[in-house]
Structures are given as structure tokens and as C-alpha cells.
């Protein structure tokens, strides 16, 4: 019984000394400044990711609404021009030059 009491006392003394060293280190100004810097960096990173996600959403939806129909229409126009050139070569006539300014009156 007496030996158990001595072991418990020695364990509690070693725990107290390690707790005091740990508490001293964790209460130091360097650790506090490091924690503060890490929290600030995490906050900035979170805000940056959130705003980047919003910007990506805006760009993607704008492209789908505005850019994709334009690309499809340009592809149709190119196919139509190719078809006209093919028909003109089959008939032996010259193909009309594409007018980018629209029909002139």
C-alpha cells in the first residue's frame, strides 16, 4: 500500500511539472502571436475562397447565358458558308464573298 502511495505522488509531481511547462509555453507571447496569425490567415483564406467561388459562379453563368449561344450561332454560320462553297464548287460557279457588314442596299 505504501508503495502505491509513493508511485501516485511521483506521477502527480511529474504531471504537475509537465503541466506547468506546457502552460508556460502555451501562455508565451510568441505562441499567442502565432495562434493569432494562424487564425487571421485562416479567416482571410476562408473569405478569399468564398469570394472566388462567387466570382466563378458569376463567370460561369454569364458564359452559359451569353457566350454559348454566340458560339453555337458562329458554328452554324460557318457550316452554312461551307455548304454554300460546296454547292458552288459542284455547280461550277464562284461562291459569293461573305459580307461581314451585312447586305448592302
TrEMBL record:
Entry's transmembrane regions? 55-72
Compartments it resides in: Mitochondrion outer membrane
Membrane topology, as annotated: Single-pass membrane protein
Compositionally biased spans, kind Low complexity: 8-31
- Renumbered residue ranges of the record's region Disordered: 1-36
Q: What is its main location?
A: mitochondrion
BP-aspect Gene Ontology terms: protein transport
| Keyword Transport on entry | yes
Keyword list (alphabetical) reads:
Membrane, Mitochondrion, Mitochondrion outer membrane, Protein transport, Receptor, Translocation, Transmembrane, Transmembrane helix, Transport
Q: Which Pfam families match?
A: Tom22
Q: Which GO terms describe its cellular component?
A: mitochondrial outer membrane
Give the source's domain of life in one word. Eukaryota
Q: Which family does it belong to?
A: Belongs to the Tom22 family.
Identification of the protein by name = Mitochondrial import receptor subunit TOM9-2
Amino acid at each position: 500500500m505504501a508503495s502505491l502511495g509513493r508511485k501516485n505522488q511521483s506521477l502527480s509531481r511529474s504531471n504537475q511539472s509537465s503541466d506547468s511547462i506546457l502552460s508556460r509555453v502555451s501562455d508565451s507571447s510568441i505562441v499567442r502571436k502565432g495562434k493569432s496569425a494562424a487564425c487571421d490567415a485562416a479567416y482571410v483564406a476562408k473569405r478569399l475562397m468564398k469570394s472566388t467561388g462567387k466570382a466563378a459562379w458569376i463567370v460561369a453563368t454569364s458564359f452559359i447565358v451569353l457566350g454559348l449561344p454566340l458560339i453555337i450561332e458562329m458554328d452554324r454560320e460557318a457550316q452554312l458558308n461551307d455548304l454554300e462553297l460546296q454547292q458552288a464548287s459542284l455547280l461550277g460557279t464562284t461562291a459569293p464573298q461573305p459580307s461581314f457588314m451585312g447586305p448592302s442596299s
